[in-house]
């Protein structure tokens, strides 16, 4: 089982003493189906604990296209969001039974159309602090004429680790001081 500790500078580095969530805990959290991910047919293998990287693939299919017939920017952003979240979760050692990872900021630069029937988001953690995790991501859609990756989009992304809260639902009672989102 992997471990995480907070460094003197507030960063979350690999360490030998703090227990991380078990694979069973992560499997239970991942078992929650997200309809948008299902609609876009997002596919991934869970990265190893402590890994800085994650990859998620998405078919270039009707559910991911905009009215012009091109890959929709929102579908690309959703692909980036999941790839970055996977990398952040596995590197930081966040505990889904006690914490949530929420997207704090995402900037996507759309660079071109895919050249294949599938795109792949490759995310890598740049820095993990005590609360904020910064991730870079490239969305690849084929290769260029000289054999390099054909970039569809690039993104910079940050996630924040926050205490676990009750899901937002109509009619849910809240405590005084709870944020109204």
Key attributes of the depicted protein:
181 residues; alpha+beta; Thiol Ester Dehydrase, Chain A; 6-stranded antiparallel β-sheet; two-stranded antiparallel ribbon; 8 strands; globular
Summarize the structure.
The protein has 181 residues and is of the alpha+beta class. The chain has 3 helices and 8 strands; from the N terminus they run ββααββαββββ.
Could you outline the blueprint of secondary structure elements for this entry?
Elements: E1 3-6, E2 12-19, H1 23-30, H2 35-39, E3 43-44, E4 53-59, H3 73-92, E5 99-110, E6 118-128, E7 132-143, E8 149-163
Antiparallel strand pairs: 1-2, 3-4, 4-6, 5-8, 6-7, 7-8
What does this protein structure show overall?
The protein contains three helices and eight strands; from the N terminus they run E-E-H-H-E-E-H-E-E-E-E. With 181 residues, the protein is of the alpha+beta class. The strands form two sheets. A six-stranded antiparallel sheet has the order 3-4-6-7-8-5, covered by helices on one side. The protein has a two-stranded antiparallel ribbon with strand order 1-2. Strand 7 and strand 8 form a beta hairpin. The N terminus is likely disordered. It has a single domain, classed as Hotdog Thioesterase (Thiol Ester Dehydrase, Chain A), CATH 3.10.129. It is globular and about 55 Å long. The longest helix is centred in the middle third of the chain and has 20 residues.
């Amino acid at each position: 089982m992997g471990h995480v500790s907070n460094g003197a500078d507030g960063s979350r580095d690999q360490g030998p003493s703090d227990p991380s969530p078990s694979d069973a805990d992560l499997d239970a959290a991942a078992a929650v189906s997200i309809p948008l991910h299902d609609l876009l047919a997002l596919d991934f293998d869970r990265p190893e604990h402590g890994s800085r990287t994650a990859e998620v693939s998405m078919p270039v299919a009707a559910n991911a296209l905009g009215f012009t017939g091109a890959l929709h920017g929102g579908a690309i952003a959703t692909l980036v969001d999941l790839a970055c979240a996977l990398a952040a979760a596995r590197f930081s050692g966040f505990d889904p039974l006690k914490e949530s990872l929420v997207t704090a900021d995402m900037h996507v630069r759309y660079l071109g159309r895919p050249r294949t029937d599938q795109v792949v988001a490759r995310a890598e953690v740049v820095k993990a602090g005590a609360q904020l995790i910064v991730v870079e991501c490239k969305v690849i859609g084929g290769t260029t004429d000289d054999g390099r990756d054909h970039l569809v989009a690039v993104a910079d992304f940050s996630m924040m680790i926050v205490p676990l809260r009750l899901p937002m639902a109509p009619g849910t009672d809240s405590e005084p001081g709870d944020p109204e989102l």
